């Protein structure tokens, strides 16, 4: 099977590529390398460098490689940035997704896996959040993913496209070879580990007055290898129909608990101070993954926060400058 992975040079996409290649799939990566890293692309994958804004380029890649399915990771994915620059999200993320879908429909490529998000669920009515929770995107980022989910509905209705929407909670951790390297780094776990590596003085905790166990935001961290496995299972199940799954571990950890876990793993004191809230952050996001466990037999290999963070710590120690070390 040949799979096109957009954003396959990025954090989650590169690990999905790694896991796909382990299954024997042939993989083509489409990435503009604006956020991803050439060195993150698995050596057995073919890399096509270009932009999803370029409809001609997408067509050329699809015509040359004729993939059986597409996994779409390439997108801007920062809640905070989307609250400051919504057009990057409501514009680029949405338009690029439509470009890709249009090019696929024109060529009869009918299988699509969407990297979606738990940011669809601002102010959820029930925790853990299940797939039937009401959708209130928490930011233009979440909204952009929801637009693409809706496009998929119509592309399925009109063109018969099969799709899976995988709504991730907080992707974290690392495989042996691939980990998290953003510039600038804005995510909690890598920031905390950068403090432990002596690359930062302290971590700022964005808000300590949320309605949570200790006032800091609670998130459900999920290992990227487990996420990648869910993509592979969803791809295999598309013949049976479309699906939408929430992907979390069903356990929430506060920002303070993440920092405390990092202190235990690294032995570093990791100074932390309270800072103002970050716009667009819901207080608690914890996902129920019963549906994907039940229907696809998904079983996370690394559900414990400590194991997830230990894998990240190992990668950050081995690559203190991220992919620049390669
Ligand atoms: N966070 C924080 N300090 C930081 C970065 C993040 O307190 O320097 C908080 C953030 O407000 C959120 C949680 O950590 O509540 C996880 O944020 P992250 O950016 O890692 O992922 P997100 O939840 O935005 O996908």
Write the layout of secondary structure elements.
Elements: E1 2-6, H1 11-22, E2 26-31, E3 46-49, H2 55-65, E4 69-72, H3 79-84, H4 86-107, E5 111-117, H5 140-159, E6 162-168, E7 170-172, H6 188-196, E8 203-206, E9 218-219, E10 221-223, H7 224-237, E11 243-247, E12 253-254, H8 255-266, E13 272-275, E14 284-285, H9 290-296, H10 305-318
Residues 79, 170, 186-188, 191, 203-206, 217, 219, 255, 278, 281 line the site of uridine-5'-diphosphate (UDP).
In terms of quaternary structure, the protein is: single chain
Major sheet strand order = 3-2-1-4-5-6-11
**How many helical elements?**
10
Sequence stretches where pLDDT stays below 50 over 5 or more residues: none
The largest pleated sheet is described as: 7 strands, parallel
- CATH class of the largest domain, named Alpha Beta
- Can you say what the CATH homologous superfamily of the largest domain is? NAD(P)-binding Rossmann-like Domain
The gross shape turns out to be globular
- Sketch the topology as an H/E string, one letter per element: EHEEHEHHEHEEHEEEHEEHEEHH
Number of strands: 14
CATH topology of the largest domain, which one?
Rossmann fold
Helix content class: 25-40%
- What class would the helix/strand composition place it in? alpha/beta
Note the beta-strand portion.
Answer: 15-25%
User: What is the domain tally?
Assistant: 2
Mean pLDDT: 96
């Amino acid at each position: 099977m040949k799979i096109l992975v957009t954003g396959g040079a990025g954090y989650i996409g590169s690990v999905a590529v790694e896991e796909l290649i382990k299954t024997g799939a042939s993989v083509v990566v489409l990435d503009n390398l604006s956020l991803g890293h050439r060195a993150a692309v698995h050596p057995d994958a073919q890399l096509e460098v270009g932009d999803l804004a370029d409809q001609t380029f997408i067509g050329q890649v699809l015509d040359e490689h004729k993939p059986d399915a597409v996994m779409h990771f390439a997108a801007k994915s920062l809640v905070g940035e989307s609250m400051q620059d919504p057009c990057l999200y409501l514009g680029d993320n949405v338009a690029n997704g439509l470009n890709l879908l249009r090019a696929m429909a024109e060529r009869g490529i009918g299988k699509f896996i969407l990297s979606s998000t738990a940011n669809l669920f601002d102010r959820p009515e029930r925790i853990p959040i299940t797939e039937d929770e009401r959708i209130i995107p928490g930011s233009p980022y979440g909204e952009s993913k929801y637009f693409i989910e809706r496009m998929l509905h119509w592309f399925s209705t009109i063109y018969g496209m099969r799709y899976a929407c995988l709504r991730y909670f907080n992707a974290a951790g690392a495989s042996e070879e691939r980990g998290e390297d953003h510039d600038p780094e804005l995510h909690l776990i890598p920031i905390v580990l950068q403090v432990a590596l002596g690359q930062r003085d302290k971590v700022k905790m964005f808000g300590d007055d949320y309605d949570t166990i200790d006032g800091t935001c609670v998130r459900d961290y999920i290992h990227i290898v487990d996420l990648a496995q869910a993509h592979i299972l969803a791809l295999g199940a598309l013949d049976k129909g479309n699906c939408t799954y929430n992907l979390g571990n069903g356990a929430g950890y506060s920002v303070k608990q993440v920092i405390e876990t990092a202190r235990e793993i690294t032995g570093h004191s990791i100074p932390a101070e309270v800072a103002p809230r970050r716009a667009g952050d819901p207080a608690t996001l914890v996902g129920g993954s019963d549906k994907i466990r039940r229907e696809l037999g998904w079983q996370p290999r690394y559900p414990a926060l400590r194991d997830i963070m230990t894998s990240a710590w190992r990668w950050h120690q081995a690559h203190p400058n991220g992919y620049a070390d390669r």
